Amino acid sequence: MGSTGHEYNEPVLLSKLREGDQRAFKRLYDHFKMGLANSLVRVLRDDELAKDVLQELFIRVWNNRETIDPQLSFKAYLYRIAQNLVVDYYRKAARDKSLQALMLQEEGWYSHVEEQLDKKENAAMLHALLQKLPEQQRRAYVLHKIEEKSHQEISEIMQISASTVNKHIHYAHRFVKAQLIQSPFYLRALLIGLMMTL
């Protein structure tokens, strides 16, 4: 994500950007676009959608250039806008049943979000989600996801068949995913962690 040519001096470029300098804007864009694009693809799981969000992000940067503080982290500023745009997308998904159904089938984006959910700092969030599950589903999910037990081990612990264990975990997994899609509060917390670690 480095720049070429002249030395990259962010405060100077930001000061020029505030004045409407398009070359400074392009230097900043070139410096950050790949890192942002990779982050967006990772959380959105769609190249075209990531391109659209990236374009909208830099349109907002240009339109709000006069409010940018050259002394503050421009990367943090960009990622904050990116997070807002991604959460807006998931808010739309929560209202759009066909989009929601598509996301429920897509495992790629969820596996990355789930990585954040499994982190210690998000334990309270995961606990709150799991409290909404029926007891058997919750127990199977906790044994599998948190205690890392195999389906066979869970079958023996819970005294139920392996196929029933599989069913409980499947329904719990779907429920947690649906809750995340429908809740911008949960998603924002998880996406902030995911995007800022890249």
Automatic annotation (TrEMBL):
Pfam families: Sigma70_r2, Sigma70_r4_2. It comes from the Bacteria. InterPro entries: AIPM/Hcit_synth_CS, RNA_pol_sigma-70-like, RNA_pol_sigma-70_dom, RNA_pol_sigma70_r2, RNA_pol_sigma70_r4_t2, RNA_pol_sigma_r2, RNA_pol_sigma_r3/r4-like, WH-like_DNA-bd_sf. Residues 29-95 form the RNA polymerase sigma-70 region domain. Keywords: Sigma factor, Transcription, Transcription regulation. The keyword Cell membrane does not apply. The keyword Transcription regulation applies. SUPFAM superfamilies: Sigma2 domain of RNA polymerase sigma factors, Sigma3 and sigma4 domains of RNA polymerase sigma factors. CDD domains: Sigma70_r4. Residues 125-170 form the RNA polymerase sigma factor 70 region 4 type domain. Belongs to the sigma-70 factor family. ECF subfamily. This is Sigma-70 family RNA polymerase sigma factor. It comes from Sphingobacterium faecale.
